[in-house]
Amino acid sequence: MGFYFNDYYMNNNDSKLYVMTENGLVPVSELSNPNMPINFMKPVSIVFPKADPRWYYEGYPGTVLAGDTVGDLIDYIPVSFYAVKDEKLYVAFHPNENYVGYLNTEKELVSDLLINGVEYKRGEYVFTILLSKNAPQAVGSRLYNTSYWTLLSEVSNIHPGQTIQKSVSISSGVSTLEGKILSVAVGSKAGLKIGFSGSAISAELSASLSRSLLRYVTISTKFTVTDVINFPAQPKPQRAALYQFSERFKIIPGNAIYKWRDYLNSKVDDNAKFYSSRFVSRIELPPFDYLSRYFATSFVVEPD
Q: In what helix (H) or strand (E) does residue 171 lie, and over which residues does it extend?
């Protein structure tokens, strides 16, 4: 993600912000011109909150909420279809102005879908309709983004004047497979394009998410590094922790698409019966948690 590093964060003296590079973690304070607004669309500040004194005794929380954003749909909403019974299926689906396309049984994007005598067991996945964001059934559906800090490591019982060094292995970004999963999770065509992989998927996802959320978003290709984190000595006993800034993306469906799903599972007319006699339609929209390149160390001393 691209962020604006503001003075408030730089002055928060019980925590420290780092950026992950291929050579390890680099403190933001050592970057050239760290207060330059990288984001020219809408500033978003990464700020790890001031440590709660209770954390010294209770331990650092597993997650710390940072904020949330609501955006427009990117390209589509996936609606999945499963076999309603053990059956050999003969069906054909053609281009539809309300569909971006179809995902076949192998999860490949196609504009025409032909199922010619394939045997399916009851409950087995058959195909997915990628419902266009402009379709009437997509009205009211939105893309939600929640930002939070994830606890990676914690050290307790650090004595006064004691410096702690801890080796950590950390990862950020998405692999090609994860990029395809993220694409479907946010309704983007990026990971479904033939020949697209690695950096190409990440670049298109970055652009798509930025347009949707109206702020600069960077999805990078996956890499892992090992580094040593230093927790400086304090004059009092302390507890310290390492966090990674994370992003959760999820489509929240509106009422219109639920009504369409219920229609496809009904027998109100011949079109509905065509679907419901062969398939059960489901709206399955699992969230995707993205691990960013930003980290923070935090310490809390023993309360008086």
A: strand 164-172
Distances (CA, A) of 285 to 70, 80, 104, 108, 183: 16, 10, 17, 18, 12
The tens place of each residue's pLDDT in the chain, 304 residues long, gives: 333 333 333 435 678 999 898 889 988 877 654 444 444 344 455 789 999 999 999 999 999 998 899 999 999 999 999 999 999 999 999 999 999 999 999 889 999 999 999 999 999 999 999 999 999 999 999 999 999 999 999 999 999 999 999 999 999 999 999 999 999 999 999 988 777 778 899 999 999 999 999 888 889 999 999 999 999 999 999 999 999 999 999 999 999 999 999 999 999 999 999 999 999 999 999 999 999 999 999 999 999 8
Q: Measure the CA–CA gap between 114 and 106, rounded to whole angstroms.
A: 13
pTM of the model: 0.88
Looking from the CA of 229 toward its CB, the CA atoms found within 13 Å total 27
